[in-house]
Amino acid sequence: MSEQLNLPHVEETGLTDAQAQMAVEAGRANTVRQTTSRSIADIVRANVFTLFNGIIVAAMILVLLAGSWKDAVFGFVIIINTGIGIVTELKAKRTLDRLSILVASDYVVRRSGRDTRVPSAGIVLDDLLWVRSGEQVPADARVVRTWGLELDESMLTGESRTVRKREGDEVYSGSAAVSGVALVHVNAVGEHSYAATLTARAKVYKKTVSDLNKGINTILKFMTFLVVPLCALLIWSQVRTVGGWDYAVATGSWRQAVISAVAGVVGMIPEGLVLLTSLNFAVAAMRLARKNTLVQELESVETLARVDCLNLDKTGTITDGGIAFDRIVPLDRDAPVSPRTMQALYDLADEGQPNATGRAILDALGAQGVLSGAVAARVPFSSARKWSAIAYGPSADEPSQGGAGVWYMGAPEVLLAALPGDHAAVLAQVNDHAAEGSRVVLLARADGPAPQDFADDPSLLADARPVALVLCSERIRDDAQPTLAWFRDQGVRCRIISGDNPVTVGAIAAKVRLTGSRKPVAMDARKLPEDVDELARVLEDVDVIGRVLPDQKKAIVDALHVGGHVVAMTGDGVNDALAIKEADLGIAMGNAAPATKAVAQVVLVDSKFSHLPDVVARGRQVMANMERVASLFLVKTVYSALISLGVVLTAIPFPYLPRHITYVGALTIGMPAFILALAPNTRRYIPGFLSRVIRFALPGGVAIALSVLLSSWLLPDIMGWDVSRPADLAALRTTCAIIVFALGVFVLARVARPLSSWRGILVALFAAAGVIGLFIPFVARFFALSLPTGRVLTATLIALLLAALLFGVCHVAIGFVGRIFSHDKPTRQS
């Protein structure tokens, strides 16, 4: 099994299977109590035990005590909505938990003299663990033997420089192996190690602070302070309208006062808004999961909607990671490729965990009969250093092969810049091959023996010289070009950020039409300015950046933030982890290193770049539709609060019953909101959710409130109604309910625009449903509604006409005031 895992041969046997089992039973396994999403109890608690559910239940109990169960129907609507929220989130939880298994990583431990794969939770205290390039260290340990292990400890220390580990050094969970391989002795597991906090970060459900959440929370906090005192004032005012407390208690008319007060309270509470928000996030996560996209934080869906800048890692995103070895080009054109050069190239690629280029070289040269040579010292490839090296010892048996020597393989620009002499001609040759889309690697050689500490302190020897160019090619993903075209159409600026030659990456970018018909502008990362403001200005004109170091990827993300962009970053390597963590939205491929997946908010499980449009489109749908839905709910909140305030100040009977607002709200807000919230929508979300929702809700809310209050004040005098008589009060309330319904349809029509599609049919259907309900005896009786006739019909029609006029005037007036203030802002700032 050691050979299958491509691990060095060691004599250590490690724990026996029986000892490992005893450690598990003793609780010394690397287990951390964590989940991929909220627990069932958390989901139920979050959907049931909310402040506003409590207010609704209390209001429902008051109405039931008052003996009018029909006016308590609004409480059952809340129960149904809560149930929908719980069921949907439970379904999302099952989907996410199932997908998380697909992205879980296994590790290799040495037990009973064999190398065995185990999950992270299967590692126990005192295990001998293999740490390999590309893996995140799962438990704290001490290095027993090392073959060039280098760790990126930036997630622990913030220092992006890689650290080379020697025997006896400590390694901590949460660090990432950048190159090499080592056998380590585990000395801390589970809750006692860094992994307890780091690896759990990507899998534990957490509520992120977002523009949407902040806006909704602001609305809810305001309502918290408004509802309770206004409810008390409403009860007091309604008791006064029926003759005072003594009379109300003696005659039982307090019941009607309570019901009227509840009508105002229920209208003010946007009860479905919070539920609909979590429902939308959960539905989005489920829909993405069906396309093998794991959303590790549901609230990151909002970020998807705001992305306007997408940084792409070339390998694994634009290309499929597959590399094909083409040929070796000797720099001495008169000399053929020597067996010694092929042997050195094979040995350089023959690392413990070779990268894609190394594997392609091994496969091609191995097919030609080249076998591993006797390497005296090795410096594994490092993404920070950009080269690897091997040293051969003096060989008495092979004097013709040159004896001792050091060979280097790496990025041509980096090696040539460090080698003595003028290599302009070689660099021009490199650029010519790279311009054709080839991946170019330089071979260099120094004849002298390697220093004693060469493996621990690698350096380029002074007499090193370039020998040959190694040409490889990358396979471009079939879905890359159409996916990039989609992002261009959606106004998302895509950049390719890669550690490879900028000319090579630029050629690939041109093939996939990264910038459409325009030629991509490529730049070498070594020429990037260090000042973040200057870097932000440079990036505006650059499409492709090559030879990027891990800390530079992070700096690029920071600079784009300075430019006011919302940045998404994709990647699959350890060197992408810092940038993915820093980006507003980190997207990891399913075959990414565990360290990279741990900090990403979205994981493309099957590593298909073509899923990204679904990811972004789903986020835009949720946010744009939630803005529509929030506007609907807030209109009701505005007019209910204003009507309640008018009722308190003028001591009139409340103009409608709780069952009226239940009927109107269900047809103009509740049911349409669920449909609109799940409708297609690709508009890019722009911050400012709360201000836009308030600007939309104020005109409609004020218009409805004024229409109802004016009708309540004027109609009794015009019609000769005595509101102390139940029949006249019922006629007034029916008229007011019809006004609220009609204007509610107007608001729904504004929210649902454009009406030329199915949205117009949606508005028409709910408007028709409301009217038809008046003709159904059971519905009319249950909701205390009746068709106006005679003079009442005339008064109702006139009231509706004036209400429609008032609706238009309010929208024009508030819109005009809003435009004045928006035009004033630049002047004040200047």
From TrEMBL:
Any GO molecular function: ATP binding
Gene3D superfamilies assigned to the protein according to its UniProt record, in alphabetical order: Calcium-transporting ATPase, cytoplasmic domain N, Calcium-transporting ATPase, cytoplasmic transduction domain A, Calcium-transporting ATPase, transmembrane domain, HAD superfamily/HAD-like
Residues annotated as domain P-type ATPase A: 108-200
The entry's keywords: Membrane, Translocase, Transmembrane, Transmembrane helix
Membrane topology: Multi-pass membrane protein
Pfam families: E1-E2_ATPase, Hydrolase
GO CC terms: plasma membrane
Top-level lineage group: Bacteria
UniProt entry tagged with the keyword S-adenosyl-L-methionine: no
Bilayer-spanning residue ranges: 43-66, 72-90, 219-237, 257-283, 629-654, 660-681, 693-715, 730-749, 761-784, 796-821
UniProt entry tagged with the keyword Zinc-finger: no
Location in the cell: Cell membrane
Protein's recorded name: Haloacid dehalogenase
Organism for this UniProt entry: Bifidobacterium leontopitheci
